[in-house]
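User: tokens in, sequence out, please.
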């Protein structure tokens, strides 16, 4: 079951917000949504490259988005140093 655009925005925003809290980086709601959605694409690509199955339900999308958002924020922290 794939998530629609509306759910992608909601879940992406939640994942971006959670990753921001986890990585101690604060952004606005628009950036949280962008970070969550882009993070999902990054994490999905990385996980599929290693042959790891990515769940296609809302919880799997949230976990994947959170992992990808954390990776993105980690890279941002490295670049800002």
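Assistant: Sequence out:
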């Amino acid at each position: 079951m794939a998530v629609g655009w509306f759910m992608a925005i909601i879940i992406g925003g939640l994942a971006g917000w959670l990753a921001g809290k986890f990585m101690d980086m604060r952004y606005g709601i628009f950036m949280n949504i962008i970070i969550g959605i882009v993070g999902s694409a990054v994490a999905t690509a990385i996980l599929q490259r290693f042959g790891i199955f990515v769940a296609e339900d809302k919880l799997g999308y949230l976990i994947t988005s959170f992992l990808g958002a954390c990776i993105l924020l980690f890279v941002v922290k490295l670049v800002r140093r």
